[in-house]
From TrEMBL:
GO terms for molecular function: alcohol dehydrogenase (NAD+) activity; zinc ion binding. This is alcohol dehydrogenase. PANTHER family: ALCOHOL DEHYDROGENASE 1-RELATED, VACUOLAR PROTEIN SORTING-ASSOCIATED PROTEIN 11. Gene3D superfamilies: Medium-chain alcohol dehydrogenases, catalytic domain. Residues 10-310 form the Enoyl reductase (ER) domain. The lineage of its organism: Bacteria, Bacillati, Actinomycetota, Actinomycetes, Micrococcales. Its cofactor is Zn(2+). Coiled coil: none annotated. Its EC number is 1.1.1.1. It comes from the Bacteria. It comes from Georgenia thermotolerans. Belongs to the zinc-containing alcohol dehydrogenase family. It is an enzyme of class 1 (oxidoreductase).
Length: 312
């Protein structure tokens, strides 16, 4: 079968012929119906610091995977043939990092990493609900401790940020957005943002209780300045892997700075329920299998609103 594989830092993905996977003990094979494109994959392709996160090279990228179980390995309990599932991308053997991922036609996953997709949730939504949905929900609701009446600053309205803003509104928070790309400001307002600003420092006027940084392009320090004294900054975006912050601001404003990585199966299930109920309707653009490299390039230059999902 065909797969788009990472070969080396700085090189484009290469379309290669790879063997069809086989389920081992405790594993299943998932026929891929949708695979989300993530800016993390752009980082893997361009930043050598990401190389250490990959189990092997060459490797099929794509860690947002949704599909149908087509093979069940020995010792698997609770995963049935034909089940519609998303795959939690956080385990050590998750597709796209720990083993070959979703930019192909089939992938192996541990049965314990599967999350059932409700019948009225599409496979494209199912894929976006894994890394993007899970990560955004966990950052806002779990790590950010956002609830009804909270004031929340969202930094970056890409695929993660738009979901984060939607989840914040779904739990009853006031949402304020900082986004340099003014072309997506109308989307912020559609998502219920009260105000949209260009610079993260401009969020300070609204005294947010929590600022969730989905960008990470040197924006952490600004988020710390913008949050109210005693407030909370949740760092999610990894646009760059190093940043300089003010210890003076951290201490004198008693800011809590936490990192948020992914989430749990329960977070994915909560996201799917919000999708199924229509409370959150993610902005998705579907592309074909052959368009994956072009889609990643669009992510790299910042030409995407919402989330790109490849549908083989």
């Amino acid at each position: 079968m065909k797969a788009w594989q990472f070969i080396a830092t700085g090189a484009p993905l290469e379309l290669r012929e790879v063997p069809e996977p086989v389920a081992g003990p405790g594993e299943v094979v998932v026929e891929i119906r949708a695979a989300g494109l993530c800016h993390t994959d752009v980082g893997v392709m361009t930043d050598p610091l990401w190389r250490a996160q990959l189990a092997t090279v060459p490797l099929t990228l794509g860690h947002e995977v949704a599909g149908v179980v087509v093979e069940v390995g020995p010792g698997v309990d609770g995963a049935e043939l034909g089940a519609r599932v998303g795959i939690n991308p956080l385990s050590a053997t998750a597709p796209g990092f720990g083993r070959d991922g979703g930019y192909s036609h089939r992938a192996v996953a541990r049965a314990e990493d599967l999350v059932p997709i409700p019948d009225n949730v599409s496979f494209a939504q199912g894929a976006a609900g894994t890394d993007a949905g899970m990560t955004s929900y966990h950052a806002v609701v779990v790590e950010g401790q956002v609830g009804a009446g909270s004031k929340v600053g969202i930094v970056g309205l890409g695929g993660l940020g738009q979901l984060g803003a939607a989840f914040a509104r779904a739990v009853g928070a006031e949402v304020y957005v900082a986004e340099v790309n003014e072309a997506v400001w109308p989307l912020a307002r559609e998502l219920g943002a009260r105000e949209v600003v260009r610079d993260v420092l401009d969020l300070k006027a609204f005294q947010p209780d929590v600022v969730v940084d989905f960008a990470g392009f040197g924006t952490t320090a600004g988020a710390m300045e913008a949050v109210r004294p005693g407030g909370r900054v949740v760092q999610v975006g990894m646009g760059t892997l190093e940043a300089t912050i003010s210890i003076n601001t951290l201490i004198l404003n008693t800011v809590t700075l936490v990192g948020s990585k992914g989430g749990t199966n329960a977070d994915i299930a909560a996201v799917y329920e919000l999708f199924a109920s229509g409370t959150v309707d993610p902005l998705l653009t579907t592309i074909g299998f052959d368009e994956i490299p072009d889609g990643l390039e669009r992510l790299r230059v910042g030409g995407v609103a919402g989330r790109l999902v490849a549908v083989p």
